[in-house]
Write a structure and sequence with these properties.
204 residues, alpha/beta, globular
């Protein structure tokens, strides 16, 4: 049985599901967009459907728009409270949301054309960022795309843990090529002025 002290520590560690359970349960979710960002809507206007994975999906609003655009979509989150909320939000599409650890889940031989990034990387402590990149490489098809909204800037009291251009280049540049970057115009107050829509293509 987990001690109270260890539970308290877990609730302060953003790499643990307890951290996110507590915030979803209390409604302390300043990162929750309650919808789909304009940059993703623009991206989906171009016919390019394939398979997409949404890690750290939270309330998973994006599942529906990917599905409507013809994508075969799967989402995953390790917070039971977040997954319950996502499934309630999605109704008939609720079976697209998996409750498990993205880094440990067995996807078998499945590989994805696209992995969608949104407040997932910046929620991870930087010592886990190399693991994130390794996992993306494992799960994308050759020339697959890691695309979405990436947070840049400074944060005195993380999380979130934002990137800098130098960190992004160091982290992703060896395995991915950045083919598009543009500022996000409809960020939440928490992220305003620091988000960029980016598309990184996995090198062969």
């Amino acid at each position: 049985m987990q001690s109270r002290n260890s539970r308290d520590q877990a609730s302060q560690d953003s790499s643990r599901p307890e951290f996110w359970d507590a915030r979803y349960a209390s409604g302390e979710t300043p990162w929750d967009f309650h919808g789909v960002p304009a940059a993703l809507k623009d991206f989906l206007e171009t016919p390019q459907a394939g398979s997409v994975l949404i890690p750290g999906c939270g309330s998973a609003y994006e599942v529906r728009v990917f599905d409507e655009a013809g994508w075969k979509v799967a989402a995953i989150d390790f917070s039971p409270v977040a997954v319950e909320r996502a499934r309630s939000e999605l109704g008939p599409l609720s079976n697209r949301v998996l409750q498990d650890d993205f880094f440990k889940h067995d996807f078998g031989s499945q590989r994805f054309d696209l992995i969608y990034e949104r407040t997932f990387l910046c929620a991870l402590p930087p010592d886990l960022w190399p693991v994130y990149v390794k996992r993306m490489r494992q799960l994308l098809v050759p020339n697959g795309k890691l695309a979405g909204i990436f947070l840049y800037g400074d944060q005195a009291d993380p999380p979130p843990y934002p990137l800098t251009p130098a960190k992004a280049s160091e982290l992703l540049g060896k395995n991915f090529s950045l083919i598009k970057t543009s500022p996000v115009t409809d960020s939440l107050p928490l992220f305003a002025g620091n988000e960029h829509w980016q598309e990184w293509v996995l090198n062969k």
